[in-house]
Amino acid sequence: MLGQKKTARSNGGLQGKRWLQHHIFSIKTLSLVVLAVQTSTMVLLLRYSRTSASGNHQQYIITTAVLLSEILKLTLSLGFLHIETGKMAKVTFDRLYRDVVLNVWETLKLAIPAFLYVVQNNLLFIALSNLDAATYQVTYQLKILTTAIFSWVILGKRLTPLHWLSLCFLMLGVSLVQVESSSWNENNSSLKASEVKGPLGDLDHPVEGLDESEDAPLPDVNEAHPNTEVSWLLGIFAVFVSCISSGFSGVYFERLVKKGTQPSLVIRNIQLGVFSIVFAVIAVSSDWSSIKEGGFFQGYTLTTWGVVLIQAFGGLIVSVTMKYADNILKGFATSLSIVMCTLVSWLVFGDAAPSTQFIIGTTIVISSTVLYGFAPQATVTSQMRGSQFSSTDSPHKV
Ligand code: C5P
Question: Which pLDDT does position 5 carry in this prediction?
Protein backbone atom coordinates (compact mmCIF):
# COMPACT_ATOMS: atom_id res chain seq x y z
CA MET A 1 0.00 0.00 0.00
CA LEU A 2 2.76 2.34 1.09
CA GLY A 3 4.88 1.15 -1.82
CA GLN A 4 2.06 1.92 -4.25
CA LYS A 5 1.67 5.38 -2.75
CA LYS A 6 5.43 5.97 -3.10
CA THR A 7 5.45 4.82 -6.74
CA ALA A 8 2.45 7.03 -7.51
CA ARG A 9 4.22 9.95 -5.90
CA SER A 10 7.48 9.37 -7.78
CA ASN A 11 5.51 9.03 -11.04
CA GLY A 12 3.75 12.25 -10.16
CA GLY A 13 7.11 13.88 -9.46
CA LEU A 14 8.45 12.71 -12.85
CA GLN A 15 5.39 13.98 -14.65
CA GLY A 16 5.70 17.25 -12.75
CA LYS A 17 9.32 17.59 -13.90
CA ARG A 18 8.38 16.86 -17.54
CA TRP A 19 5.52 19.35 -17.32
CA LEU A 20 7.93 21.93 -15.95
CA GLN A 21 10.44 21.32 -18.75
CA HIS A 22 7.72 21.69 -21.37
CA HIS A 23 6.26 24.80 -19.82
CA ILE A 24 9.41 26.53 -18.69
CA PHE A 25 9.12 29.19 -21.37
CA SER A 26 5.54 30.00 -20.46
CA ILE A 27 6.37 30.10 -16.74
CA LYS A 28 9.16 32.54 -17.55
CA THR A 29 6.98 34.78 -19.75
CA LEU A 30 4.01 34.57 -17.44
CA SER A 31 6.07 35.38 -14.35
CA LEU A 32 7.53 38.47 -16.08
CA VAL A 33 4.10 39.73 -17.19
CA VAL A 34 2.63 39.09 -13.72
CA LEU A 35 5.63 40.86 -12.17
CA ALA A 36 5.08 43.92 -14.37
CA VAL A 37 1.42 44.12 -13.35
CA GLN A 38 2.24 43.38 -9.69
CA THR A 39 4.96 46.08 -9.57
CA SER A 40 2.63 48.70 -11.06
CA THR A 41 -0.22 47.83 -8.68
CA MET A 42 2.13 47.73 -5.72
CA VAL A 43 3.74 51.10 -6.45
CA LEU A 44 0.43 52.89 -7.05
CA LEU A 45 -1.32 51.30 -4.08
CA LEU A 46 1.60 51.86 -1.72
CA ARG A 47 1.95 55.49 -2.80
CA TYR A 48 -1.79 55.93 -2.33
CA SER A 49 -1.70 54.27 1.09
CA ARG A 50 1.07 56.63 2.25
CA THR A 51 -0.42 59.85 0.91
CA SER A 52 -4.16 59.38 1.29
CA ALA A 53 -4.07 59.68 5.09
CA SER A 54 -5.28 63.12 5.95
CA GLY A 55 -6.91 65.01 8.78
CA ASN A 56 -7.35 62.77 11.80
CA HIS A 57 -6.38 59.65 9.93
CA GLN A 58 -3.24 58.14 11.36
CA GLN A 59 -0.45 56.66 9.24
CA TYR A 60 0.19 52.97 9.65
CA ILE A 61 3.61 51.91 10.93
CA ILE A 62 5.81 50.79 8.06
CA THR A 63 7.69 48.06 9.94
CA THR A 64 4.45 46.32 10.93
CA ALA A 65 3.32 46.11 7.29
CA VAL A 66 6.71 44.65 6.27
CA LEU A 67 6.50 42.06 9.07
CA LEU A 68 2.99 41.02 8.06
CA SER A 69 3.97 40.56 4.43
CA GLU A 70 6.99 38.45 5.48
CA ILE A 71 4.72 36.26 7.64
CA LEU A 72 2.30 35.88 4.74
CA LYS A 73 5.12 34.94 2.34
CA LEU A 74 6.44 32.26 4.70
CA THR A 75 2.93 30.88 5.25
CA LEU A 76 2.35 30.68 1.50
CA SER A 77 5.74 29.04 0.95
CA LEU A 78 4.94 26.43 3.62
CA GLY A 79 1.60 25.85 1.88
CA PHE A 80 3.39 25.29 -1.44
CA LEU A 81 5.76 22.84 0.20
CA HIS A 82 2.80 20.96 1.63
CA ILE A 83 1.26 20.72 -1.85
CA GLU A 84 4.62 19.70 -3.34
CA THR A 85 4.96 16.85 -0.86
CA GLY A 86 1.55 15.47 -1.78
CA LYS A 87 -0.29 17.14 1.14
CA MET A 88 1.18 14.69 3.63
CA ALA A 89 1.96 16.48 6.88
CA LYS A 90 4.62 13.97 7.95
CA VAL A 91 6.48 14.25 4.64
CA THR A 92 6.30 18.05 4.82
CA PHE A 93 7.75 18.08 8.35
CA ASP A 94 10.46 15.59 7.40
CA ARG A 95 11.42 17.71 4.42
CA LEU A 96 11.51 20.85 6.54
CA TYR A 97 13.59 19.14 9.21
CA ARG A 98 16.03 17.72 6.67
CA ASP A 99 16.42 20.75 4.39
CA VAL A 100 16.01 23.65 6.80
CA VAL A 101 17.04 22.43 10.27
CA LEU A 102 19.67 19.76 9.56
CA ASN A 103 21.03 21.61 6.55
CA VAL A 104 21.83 24.54 8.79
CA TRP A 105 24.78 25.81 6.74
CA GLU A 106 22.64 26.16 3.61
CA THR A 107 19.90 27.82 5.68
CA LEU A 108 22.37 30.29 7.21
CA LYS A 109 23.37 31.46 3.73
CA LEU A 110 19.96 33.09 3.43
CA ALA A 111 20.50 35.34 6.48
CA ILE A 112 22.39 37.87 4.33
CA PRO A 113 19.72 38.47 1.65
CA ALA A 114 16.99 38.23 4.32
CA PHE A 115 18.58 41.11 6.26
CA LEU A 116 19.07 43.19 3.12
CA TYR A 117 15.55 42.54 1.82
CA VAL A 118 13.95 43.53 5.13
CA VAL A 119 15.93 46.80 5.10
CA GLN A 120 15.05 47.28 1.42
CA ASN A 121 11.35 46.57 1.95
CA ASN A 122 11.21 49.17 4.74
CA LEU A 123 13.07 51.64 2.52
CA LEU A 124 10.54 51.05 -0.24
CA PHE A 125 7.80 52.43 2.02
CA ILE A 126 9.99 55.40 2.99
CA ALA A 127 10.79 56.11 -0.67
CA LEU A 128 7.14 56.04 -1.70
CA SER A 129 6.14 58.20 1.25
CA ASN A 130 8.46 60.90 -0.06
CA LEU A 131 8.63 60.53 -3.85
CA ASP A 132 5.97 60.35 -6.52
CA ALA A 133 5.43 56.93 -8.07
CA ALA A 134 7.05 57.72 -11.44
CA THR A 135 10.22 59.29 -9.99
CA TYR A 136 10.59 56.34 -7.65
CA GLN A 137 10.23 53.79 -10.41
CA VAL A 138 12.56 55.41 -12.92
CA THR A 139 15.27 56.03 -10.31
CA TYR A 140 14.92 52.49 -9.01
CA GLN A 141 15.92 51.31 -12.49
CA LEU A 142 19.48 52.05 -11.35
CA LYS A 143 19.28 48.62 -9.77
CA ILE A 144 20.07 47.26 -13.23
CA LEU A 145 23.46 48.97 -12.92
CA THR A 146 24.08 47.57 -9.44
CA THR A 147 22.93 44.11 -10.56
CA ALA A 148 25.41 44.27 -13.46
CA ILE A 149 28.24 45.35 -11.15
CA PHE A 150 27.51 42.60 -8.63
CA SER A 151 27.25 40.00 -11.41
CA TRP A 152 30.66 41.19 -12.61
CA VAL A 153 32.29 41.28 -9.17
CA ILE A 154 30.69 38.20 -7.61
CA LEU A 155 30.16 35.99 -10.65
CA GLY A 156 32.97 37.25 -12.86
CA LYS A 157 30.41 38.10 -15.53
CA ARG A 158 32.07 40.15 -18.27
CA LEU A 159 30.20 43.04 -19.82
CA THR A 160 30.63 44.09 -23.43
CA PRO A 161 31.11 47.76 -24.44
CA LEU A 162 27.44 47.71 -25.55
CA HIS A 163 26.38 46.71 -22.05
CA TRP A 164 28.41 49.56 -20.54
CA LEU A 165 27.00 51.98 -23.13
CA SER A 166 23.45 51.01 -22.26
CA LEU A 167 24.26 51.45 -18.57
CA CYS A 168 25.57 54.97 -19.31
CA PHE A 169 22.30 55.73 -21.14
CA LEU A 170 20.42 54.36 -18.17
CA MET A 171 22.13 56.83 -15.86
CA LEU A 172 21.53 59.68 -18.31
CA GLY A 173 17.81 58.87 -18.43
CA VAL A 174 17.55 58.61 -14.64
CA SER A 175 19.37 61.95 -14.25
CA LEU A 176 16.95 63.65 -16.65
CA VAL A 177 13.99 62.40 -14.69
CA GLN A 178 15.65 63.45 -11.44
CA VAL A 179 16.48 66.99 -12.59
CA GLU A 180 12.91 67.33 -13.73
CA SER A 181 11.35 65.95 -10.54
CA SER A 182 13.66 67.89 -8.17
CA SER A 183 12.92 71.19 -9.90
CA TRP A 184 9.25 70.28 -9.82
CA ASN A 185 9.53 69.66 -6.10
CA GLU A 186 11.21 73.03 -5.55
CA ASN A 187 8.52 74.88 -7.43
CA ASN A 188 5.59 72.91 -6.23
CA SER A 189 4.64 73.43 -2.65
CA SER A 190 1.52 71.32 -3.00
CA LEU A 191 3.39 68.03 -2.82
CA LYS A 192 1.43 65.60 -0.72
CA ALA A 193 4.22 65.57 1.86
CA SER A 194 3.32 69.08 2.88
CA GLU A 195 -0.21 67.98 3.60
CA VAL A 196 0.86 65.38 6.07
CA LYS A 197 0.70 66.71 9.57
CA GLY A 198 3.78 66.43 11.73
CA PRO A 199 6.37 68.75 13.20
CA LEU A 200 9.53 69.68 11.42
CA GLY A 201 12.37 67.48 12.53
CA ASP A 202 15.53 68.63 14.21
CA LEU A 203 17.77 68.03 11.24
CA ASP A 204 21.54 67.97 11.07
CA HIS A 205 21.35 70.33 8.11
CA PRO A 206 18.31 72.44 8.63
CA VAL A 207 16.78 73.88 5.50
CA GLU A 208 16.66 77.62 5.24
CA GLY A 209 13.38 79.38 5.60
CA LEU A 210 11.78 76.85 7.88
CA ASP A 211 10.56 77.37 11.39
CA GLU A 212 12.68 75.47 13.79
CA SER A 213 11.33 74.53 17.16
CA GLU A 214 13.76 73.63 19.92
CA ASP A 215 11.41 70.91 21.08
CA ALA A 216 10.90 69.46 17.61
CA PRO A 217 11.38 65.68 17.65
CA LEU A 218 13.44 63.79 15.11
CA PRO A 219 11.75 63.26 11.73
CA ASP A 220 9.52 60.22 11.71
CA VAL A 221 10.16 57.93 8.75
CA ASN A 222 6.57 56.73 9.05
CA GLU A 223 5.47 60.02 7.58
CA ALA A 224 6.56 62.00 4.56
CA HIS A 225 8.85 64.82 5.60
CA PRO A 226 6.93 68.13 5.63
CA ASN A 227 9.76 69.92 3.82
CA THR A 228 9.63 68.99 0.15
CA GLU A 229 13.38 69.31 -0.39
CA VAL A 230 14.26 67.09 2.57
CA SER A 231 11.45 64.74 1.61
CA TRP A 232 12.91 64.38 -1.89
CA LEU A 233 16.45 63.77 -0.55
CA LEU A 234 15.13 61.17 1.92
CA GLY A 235 13.25 59.40 -0.86
CA ILE A 236 16.23 59.41 -3.22
CA PHE A 237 18.56 58.15 -0.49
CA ALA A 238 16.13 55.30 0.25
CA VAL A 239 16.05 54.39 -3.45
CA PHE A 240 19.86 54.43 -3.81
CA VAL A 241 20.39 52.14 -0.83
CA SER A 242 17.63 49.86 -2.15
CA CYS A 243 19.38 49.67 -5.53
CA ILE A 244 22.55 48.37 -3.88
CA SER A 245 20.62 45.91 -1.74
CA SER A 246 18.47 44.74 -4.67
CA GLY A 247 21.48 44.20 -6.96
CA PHE A 248 23.44 42.19 -4.42
CA SER A 249 20.56 40.14 -3.01
CA GLY A 250 19.17 39.40 -6.47
CA VAL A 251 22.46 38.01 -7.79
CA TYR A 252 23.06 36.11 -4.56
CA PHE A 253 19.60 34.48 -4.54
CA GLU A 254 19.68 33.68 -8.26
CA ARG A 255 23.01 31.92 -7.77
CA LEU A 256 21.61 29.83 -4.93
CA VAL A 257 18.47 28.67 -6.77
CA LYS A 258 20.20 28.01 -10.06
CA LYS A 259 23.46 26.41 -9.08
CA GLY A 260 23.45 25.96 -5.32
CA THR A 261 23.40 22.55 -3.66
CA GLN A 262 19.75 23.16 -2.71
CA PRO A 263 18.04 24.45 -5.85
CA SER A 264 14.43 24.02 -4.58
CA LEU A 265 12.76 27.40 -4.83
CA VAL A 266 10.21 26.57 -2.16
CA ILE A 267 12.87 25.52 0.35
CA ARG A 268 15.01 28.57 -0.45
CA ASN A 269 11.98 30.82 0.09
CA ILE A 270 11.28 29.15 3.44
CA GLN A 271 14.91 29.55 4.51
CA LEU A 272 14.79 33.20 3.46
CA GLY A 273 11.41 33.68 5.16
CA VAL A 274 12.58 32.39 8.54
CA PHE A 275 15.39 34.96 8.73
CA SER A 276 13.25 37.70 7.18
CA ILE A 277 10.71 37.35 9.99
CA VAL A 278 13.47 37.54 12.63
CA PHE A 279 14.86 40.75 11.08
CA ALA A 280 11.38 42.19 10.51
CA VAL A 281 10.56 41.63 14.21
CA ILE A 282 13.77 43.48 15.17
CA ALA A 283 12.66 46.35 12.88
CA VAL A 284 9.21 46.38 14.51
CA SER A 285 10.81 46.63 17.96
CA SER A 286 12.34 49.97 16.93
CA ASP A 287 8.75 51.30 16.72
CA TRP A 288 7.82 49.78 20.04
CA SER A 289 6.85 53.05 21.78
CA SER A 290 4.40 54.00 18.97
CA ILE A 291 2.98 50.47 18.95
CA LYS A 292 2.50 50.55 22.74
CA GLU A 293 0.70 53.85 22.38
CA GLY A 294 -1.51 53.24 19.34
CA GLY A 295 -1.46 49.48 18.81
CA PHE A 296 0.13 47.27 16.15
CA PHE A 297 -2.63 47.89 13.63
CA GLN A 298 -2.95 51.65 14.08
CA GLY A 299 -3.76 53.44 10.84
CA TYR A 300 -4.54 50.21 8.98
CA THR A 301 -7.09 50.52 6.20
CA LEU A 302 -8.22 48.20 3.44
CA THR A 303 -5.51 49.73 1.24
CA THR A 304 -2.83 48.83 3.80
CA TRP A 305 -3.99 45.22 3.76
CA GLY A 306 -3.93 45.34 -0.03
CA VAL A 307 -0.32 46.55 0.08
CA VAL A 308 0.66 43.76 2.49
CA LEU A 309 -0.98 41.16 0.26
CA ILE A 310 0.52 42.44 -3.00
CA GLN A 311 3.95 42.86 -1.41
CA ALA A 312 3.91 39.21 -0.27
CA PHE A 313 2.64 37.96 -3.61
CA GLY A 314 5.28 40.10 -5.38
CA GLY A 315 8.09 38.54 -3.36
CA LEU A 316 7.05 35.09 -4.48
CA ILE A 317 6.75 36.19 -8.11
CA VAL A 318 10.22 37.77 -7.90
CA SER A 319 11.65 34.47 -6.70
CA VAL A 320 10.00 32.65 -9.64
CA THR A 321 11.51 35.14 -12.14
CA MET A 322 14.93 34.67 -10.54
CA LYS A 323 14.67 30.91 -10.92
CA TYR A 324 13.10 30.66 -14.39
CA ALA A 325 14.24 33.95 -15.94
CA ASP A 326 16.92 36.17 -14.40
CA ASN A 327 17.52 39.47 -12.68
CA ILE A 328 18.02 41.44 -15.88
CA LEU A 329 14.81 40.16 -17.41
CA LYS A 330 13.23 41.18 -14.13
CA GLY A 331 14.50 44.67 -15.00
CA PHE A 332 12.54 44.52 -18.28
CA ALA A 333 9.36 43.75 -16.40
CA THR A 334 9.94 46.74 -14.13
CA SER A 335 10.56 49.00 -17.14
CA LEU A 336 7.22 47.94 -18.52
CA SER A 337 5.60 48.78 -15.20
CA ILE A 338 6.95 52.36 -15.42
CA VAL A 339 4.92 52.90 -18.58
CA MET A 340 1.86 51.24 -17.00
CA CYS A 341 2.13 53.35 -13.84
CA THR A 342 2.60 56.63 -15.70
CA LEU A 343 -0.39 55.91 -17.92
CA VAL A 344 -2.63 54.80 -15.05
CA SER A 345 -1.69 57.84 -12.86
CA TRP A 346 -2.36 60.14 -15.79
CA LEU A 347 -5.46 58.56 -17.29
CA VAL A 348 -7.14 57.00 -14.26
CA PHE A 349 -6.02 59.14 -11.31
CA GLY A 350 -6.00 62.37 -13.33
CA ASP A 351 -2.41 63.29 -12.39
CA ALA A 352 -0.69 65.98 -14.44
CA ALA A 353 0.48 64.78 -17.86
CA PRO A 354 4.19 63.89 -17.78
CA SER A 355 6.48 66.69 -19.01
CA THR A 356 8.56 66.37 -22.18
CA GLN A 357 11.78 66.02 -20.17
CA PHE A 358 10.21 63.27 -18.07
CA ILE A 359 9.03 61.43 -21.20
CA ILE A 360 12.49 61.73 -22.83
CA GLY A 361 14.21 60.53 -19.63
CA THR A 362 11.83 57.59 -19.22
CA THR A 363 12.19 56.63 -22.91
CA ILE A 364 15.99 56.61 -22.52
CA VAL A 365 15.73 54.45 -19.38
CA ILE A 366 13.45 51.91 -21.05
CA SER A 367 15.46 51.84 -24.30
CA SER A 368 18.73 51.34 -22.42
CA THR A 369 17.16 48.46 -20.49
CA VAL A 370 16.09 46.80 -23.73
CA LEU A 371 19.51 47.48 -25.30
CA TYR A 372 21.20 45.91 -22.29
CA GLY A 373 19.02 42.81 -22.46
CA PHE A 374 19.55 42.25 -26.17
CA ALA A 375 23.26 43.12 -26.35
CA PRO A 376 25.28 40.05 -27.38
CA GLN A 377 26.91 38.20 -24.50
CA ALA A 378 30.65 38.49 -23.85
CA THR A 379 32.73 35.40 -24.48
CA VAL A 380 32.92 33.33 -21.35
CA THR A 381 36.06 34.09 -19.38
CA SER A 382 38.01 31.53 -17.42
CA GLN A 383 36.99 33.38 -14.29
CA MET A 384 33.36 32.96 -15.23
CA ARG A 385 33.75 29.31 -16.09
CA GLY A 386 34.80 28.76 -12.52
CA SER A 387 31.82 30.67 -11.23
CA GLN A 388 28.41 29.24 -10.54
CA PHE A 389 26.96 30.48 -13.82
CA SER A 390 27.79 28.73 -17.05
CA SER A 391 27.61 30.39 -20.46
CA THR A 392 24.18 28.88 -21.00
CA ASP A 393 22.60 30.17 -17.85
CA SER A 394 24.29 33.51 -17.69
CA PRO A 395 22.32 35.93 -15.58
CA HIS A 396 21.96 38.26 -18.55
CA LYS A 397 20.84 35.75 -21.12
CA VAL A 398 17.56 36.84 -22.68
O1 C5P B 1 13.18 45.37 -6.20
P2 C5P B 1 13.63 43.96 -6.09
O3 C5P B 1 13.38 43.18 -7.31
O4 C5P B 1 15.01 43.82 -5.55
O5 C5P B 1 12.65 43.39 -4.96
C6 C5P B 1 12.72 42.09 -4.59
C7 C5P B 1 11.54 41.81 -3.67
O8 C5P B 1 11.25 40.45 -3.71
C9 C5P B 1 11.78 42.17 -2.21
O10 C5P B 1 10.60 42.69 -1.68
C11 C5P B 1 12.09 40.84 -1.56
O12 C5P B 1 11.68 40.79 -0.21
C13 C5P B 1 11.26 39.90 -2.40
N14 C5P B 1 11.82 38.56 -2.53
C15 C5P B 1 11.17 37.52 -1.90
N16 C5P B 1 11.63 36.26 -2.03
C17 C5P B 1 12.73 36.01 -2.76
C18 C5P B 1 13.43 37.05 -3.40
C19 C5P B 1 12.94 38.32 -3.27
O20 C5P B 1 10.16 37.74 -1.23
N21 C5P B 1 13.13 34.78 -2.87
Answer: 53
